[in-house]
Amino acid sequence: MPTAIRQVTTGQNAEAAISAAYNEAGYRYGKYADGNPRTLFAFDGRHAYGDRKTWELIEGRLLALRATGACRLRVLDMGCGPGTWLRRIVVRARQLGFAEIVAHGFDIADIQLHRARALSRGVAELDGVSLTFAHGDLRGRIAGPRSAYDLCLCLCGVLNHMPVSELPEVFARMAKVTANCFIASVRSVGSTPTVYVDDLTSAVRFYQDNKLGRLDVEFSNGRRSSFPSHLFSRTELAGLASPVFDVDEIRGLDLFHGRFAADPRWNPPTATMLARLSQELERLEDRYCCDPGFVDHATHLLIMAHKPRTARS
């Protein structure tokens, strides 16, 4: 990579670099990461398989909580981006009969927060719903009393941008505000490449330095960016979570689907994935998603955990 962008990004400089990258991506980030914001449950984008599996897990937790007779739901999304996951949760929770829904998201990228507020306006105005977004950083204090939220999320590689030395404190802060369930997803050490903020086709050069914990990118529009990026192994992720959470499962998301997806720079439009191939890949995903020999090669690692009963207030 050109030396002009190979700079150490730490502390406030790191936060500024991350927020700048996501702010500059603007609406393209949501399109790349979440698909069409108007079709919340379509899951038809490039990352459809992983997103669908993540949603199945979240929806299962909502169903389980509602089955206990709970009428109030409190959700926190740490690194919420354009707010897609919170909108999904609020809409589904309303369908399930939760009478009071308090959903809050925070992010360091102000443009993503602006989009989150704009896209969530209709949902936020529903009776019994409090859906809010604010500027916030996992490296600082997470607002809210101890065990404030039934469900805490930290999805789509937010933790990949945290300094490794600070991760134990970050996990402790996340656990403090979690009353019950915690769900996070991170890029794994053996994952396919990503530039996080946009589709990989938008980059002409990139280099991930996992020793220094940094990703350097040169985009096709001439923009250059350098920001923190650390890739996780399953063992490392479990080691960070287990001191403060009871870990239910760590599974790999998308071991095969992404590797068989068509590349518009090379494959013609006719090279679509056939239903039979998709079904076979799903069978393989289910078989190997928790296999120690495969899991670190997934696109994401998904961790599901809960607050130990002895730690709940």
Explain the overall architecture.
By secondary structure, this protein is an alpha/beta fold. It has one domain (3-311): Vaccinia Virus protein VP39 (Rossmann fold), CATH 3.40.50. It has ten helices and ten strands. The protein has helices at residues 11-25, 27-34, 48-67, 84-96, 110-119, 121-124, 167-177, 234-241, 257-260, 275-288; strands spanning 72-78, 100-107, 129-135, 149-154, 178-187, 203-209, 214-219, 224-228, 246-253, 300-306. α3 (48-67) packs parallel to α4 (84-96). The chain is globular, with a radius of gyration of 19 Å. 41% of the residues are buried. Residues 1-9 have low confidence and may be disordered.
**Rg from C-alpha positions?**
19 Å
Low-pLDDT parts are: 1-9
Class by helix and strand content? alpha/beta
End-to-end distance: 50 Å
Helix tally equals: 10
Number of strands: 10
From N to C, what is the helix and strand string? HHHEHEHHEEHEEEEHEHHE
Number of domains: 1
| Main sheet specs | 7 strands, mixed
User: What fold name goes in the CATH topology slot?
Assistant: Rossmann fold
Mean pLDDT: 92
The CATH homologous superfamily is named: Vaccinia Virus protein VP39
CATH uppermost class:
Alpha Beta
Tell me the strand order in the biggest sheet. 3-2-1-4-5-10-9
- Name the helicity range: 25-40%
Coarse morphology? globular
**What oligomeric state best describes the polypeptide chains here?**
single chain
What is the architecture at the second tier of CATH?
Answer: 3-Layer(aba) Sandwich
**Strand percentage:** 15-25%
